[in-house]
Amino acid sequence: MDDILFGNNNRAIIKKLTSRSFHSNKTRNIIAVIAIALTTFLFTAVLTIGLGSTGTIKYNMERMLGTQADALVQGLSAEQFEQLKNNSMFEKVGCWIPVAIMSNTNHLPVEVDYADQAQLELRFLTPRAGSAPQKENEVLVSANVLEDMNIEEQIGVSIPIEFSIQDKVYHFDMVVSGIYDTPHEKSESVIVSQAFMESNQDMLSEAAEGRSGCGIYDADVVMRDTYMVQECISEFVLSIGGNPDNANADNYVRIAPTPQSSNDSNLVIWLAAGVFGILFMFCGYLLIYNVFEIAVTNDIRQYGLLRTIGTTSRQVKRLVNRQAWYLFLIGTPIGLLLGLLLGRSILPAVIQIFSVDYGGDKIEVGALPYVAIIAGAILFSGLTVYISTRKPVKKASQISPIEAVRYVEQANISVLSKNADKGAIIPRMAKANLQRNRRRTAFIVVSLTLSVILLNSVFVFSNSFDEEVYIKKQTRSDFIVYNPSVALAFNGNFGHDSGISDNTVSEIGQQSGVTNEVKLYRNTFEDDNIACDWGISYPVDNTYKYVSVLPDFLDWGYNDNFGYAALTSDNLPLGNVFGFSENLLQRIGIIEGETDLALLKEKLWNGNNVILMASYDNSGNLDGADDPQYAGVSVGDTIQFYENGTPTKMFTVIAKAAATDSEITLAGGGSNIATDVGGPMIYMSEDNFKEIYETPTLYGFLFDVEDEYQQEMENYLAQNTDISYSSASTLRTTILSLKNVVLLIGGMIGAIFALVGLINFTNLIMTNIITRRHEFAIMQSIGMTNRQLRQLLILESISYVMRAGVVGILTSCVMGFTLIKILVENGPTNFMMSFQMTLFPAIIILVFFGALAFTIPVIALQFFNNHSIVERLKVQE
Fold first, then answer.
1. Which residues on adjacent β-strands are paired with residue 799?
2. What is the pLDDT of residues 456-465, one digit of tens each?
3. Which of 294, 590, 644, 789 measures 20 to 30 Å from 681, CA to CA?
4. CA–CA dist 77, 66 (Å, integer)
5. Which residues have C-beta within 8 Å of that of residue 487, sequence separation ≥ 6?
6. Structural domain boundaries of the chain?
7. Structure confidence by residue, pLDDT tens digits, 475-525
């Protein structure tokens, strides 16, 4: 641009001035490059670790759930499925068609299903050996199924498949085309091909008519936008002729969003990410701004001299901006390289922790979006540098030549309002120096405060992962043993053989360290000669039966206020009836009624009394005595039992209680059975239960084990293929793995924040000393000693730390009890977290800051104040 009157082109001169000014300020350049590199490093490391760990945690949470989908849509017709598959709302749609349950396995309950390639990927069923089935006689099976059927784990081996539909037995001799590892321990499937489905249309039509939930189209869907998943899919289902709202409608389509698609959780995550993103940028802004503010102040006379010889404001801006651009080009690649190296080195450690329990060794670190990470880090860093240099550049360009030549940093204190201070000279001078440039003081304090807040917030969140809370919400027993068949129930096969044998329980009880044994009995579909009446009418309505697990000889009854209940032949409820041994009373919480456990036990075992049970949700919440799980029955109401339509015993409800879901339904399909039977959970003493039910079915065995025998019991149960079990130690390992990952990631991010604060503080103190060398020389020329000068600078530094400590701790408390607490209690992992406030990290970082406040002034004075007073007086500020 031509800025001079006669049109001389001075671009080359500005470039030369920029270059000379740049090379003459080596100290400034080093500090600025460190600041920019550190800011870029902060963004790069956080993005690398954050995106990589988010993917890792999300991947393993999905493996725990057994699906990557945002929602499951059940009960679609073939035409509706095609319309759903082709809709732009969905990024990925998988097709799943249940066919039947295998009847020729030895122990495992196994489904025969059809799944397309998208569905195999969504449910982690892609083969580790071989391929998905293509031919009519090919199947994809899990290694567990082959082991259960005593078949060699080999591609091409024959496998017999048997199942029954509408009492008709089907047998197919199939060939294993692929083998997969079960991603979810409660489900096993044999996957058939599309050719098989096309060749057996009549059989599949019979399955669909069997009202057992088989032969219908299910879809796992991944949304392009996960905002309001339930509402969006419901609106679409209505548009294609389905009814997502009325479960008894002929065209009912069930929509089940997965936990990771929760709107509330996503909103909280985005809110937290936004807040911390702003804090990241502000942290970098303070770091870079202070460097350039001090540099411009230090060079203000140079810019004034340039103005006296005709340099315009625009040219001064260009001169300063070019130097900032040079520093950005040098510092950014360094920060990118260090950030990527750190993030890349941390992720394998994260994966190694996960690989113990979740198969994390299959996660590739190379899948990270490096282009996006680099672009994002450069964008954030460039934007931060641009914002940080605006004010210093403006200051350099707008100062007048005369003002610049005589510039001395002024105190922002009015002489008229100044009060006389009494006391020691050095403390008063330190206080005055902090007040002379309140903006700089505020920036230093805010920078230190940010590091304190961010570090403390990260550790508060990480420390809130609580394995004991997670276990308590899942189970109150060390071990729960049950029949594998309750994990999967179709075609009404939940009968007396779905229990565990007394011999199995006896053998377990003889193992070392077993205590607090609880036997849990319950009625089955085969106990249809026994019915009960709790005073609510359920008119017969079988329209919903096609998606239930009820057998044909049981009907559905529907009440407008209390939903469905299974009915026996005399149109009375079958009932969810449980018998239990007395140790269970120690594992439940009384919600209403008799609260004295000794008296409660006496009434249950010596009278015709029962309690009603409900389950806490994952957050440990329950709607009290009015919870819908109690089906409108109150304490004091009676329940009449019938046998073959004849009244037998009558029981009185004396209490309402609640426990974890595992204590009530034990596992997997057990919850489907309880839900489809309907009505309240009726718990009575095992003695009363055995009097009512001729063939009592031992549904589950709950017990604790002394700590030293826990692993021994795990090994013993794992070898018994006739049972399934869950254990508190397995749950503990699960949550500890996740907790370790979060602590590792949170610790690294917290360490980065602490490093930023430490370097920023060091940088600010050192640059402050450099720019005040002339001032120090004047003070020493009139009698100040080196010891007094060190004392002055230490007091100034300590004052910064004390102010940052007060503000940082108070703000950390506010941040912890607001944003962090909301994230802990409402985030996607709230079921495994318990808010734990701590200020220990904040105190630790403040101690480091205090140590730096003592050491840095001493070291800096030795390096930058080692010339004679006369030499330093000659140096222009």
1. none
2. 888 888 788 7
3. 644
4. 24
5. 109, 186, 187, 667, 668, 669, 670, 724
6. 1-63+289-407, 68-257, 424-476+725-877, 484-722
7. 778 888 888 777 655 545 788 888 888 899 999 999 999 999 999 999 999
